[in-house]
Amino acid sequence: MNINWQHDPVMNRLAEVLPVPTSYQQQDIYLALLSSIISQQLSTKVARVIRERFLSLFPDKYPQAELVLKLQIDDLKKVGLSTAKAGYVQNIARFHLDFPLSYEHLQPLPDEELIALFTQIKGVGIWTAQMVLMFPMNRPDVFPVDDLAIQQQMIKFYQIQESGKQLRERLFTIAENWRPHRTLACRYLWDAKDLVPLQS
Predict the structure, then answer these.
(1) What is the pLDDT of residue 198?
(2) Rounded to an integer, what distance in angstroms lies between the CA atom of residue 118 and that of residue 166?
(3) What is the phi/psi pair of residue 95, to 5°?
């Protein structure tokens, strides 16, 4: 993807030194939401183990919503989920039965409506909704301003001094230069975690 980042020298240089992030293919949105809840506040390794244990509870390792709801909270806790996460997983399954969380149903909706829809589910916050938009749904212009890694990378590469409300305003201002490719810009920032700030 050849994008002109001329209005942002930092992003222009990151795009020069880093490989273009690969695009994500269409995935199972329902499963992606479940996986995101399971993975919250866990290391990648621990999250993978718990996710596999969770999936092993179901035939063909697929958590059909009806089967998720038949499980007791204690059944879900036995595979490593907290009480809260067990409840959130069942909230997603219940919602999926009422409003199918399929790519076909969701793809026509704009980003704002999708975020509003996902966050109706108790346990699914704005950040989780944004991750689903950015990855399994491959939406091109999402900016997760509350993602800690994004904040840290922007502070580092853009030499930001502000904090609190002023920091958020500065981050949004910078990200405006990335439209309509804010998802790609964020993926460059994540991929640049091992790079030192580039000198002008």
Answers:
(1) 61
(2) 28
(3) -65, -40
**H-only helix segments in 119-181:** 126-134, 148-157, 164-176
Residue 11, in any domain of the structure: no
Check residue 196 and give its pLDDT.
80
Number of domains in the chain: 2
pLDDT digit string (tens) for 35-79? 999 998 899 999 999 999 999 999 999 999 999 999 999 999 999
Do 119 and 179 reside in the same domain of the chain?
no
Torsion, CA 144, CA 145, CA 149, CA 150, rounded to 10: 90
* Per-residue pLDDT at 6: 84
pLDDT tops 90 at residue 195: no
Residues 125 and 41 in one domain: yes
Q: Which residue, 156, 165, 142, is CA-closest to 189? A: 156
Distance CA 137, CA 25 (A): 8
**Which residue, 138, 140, 99, is CA-closest to 116?**
99
Q: Contact at 8 Å (CB) between 139 and 180?
A: no
> Could you report the per-residue pLDDT of 104-131, keeping only the tens digit for each?
999 999 999 999 999 999 999 999 999 9
- Which residues fall within 8 angstroms of residue 87, CB to CB, at 6 or more apart? 73, 122, 123
Last residue of a domain, one of 88, 113, 134: 134
Distance CA 137, CA 106 (A): 9
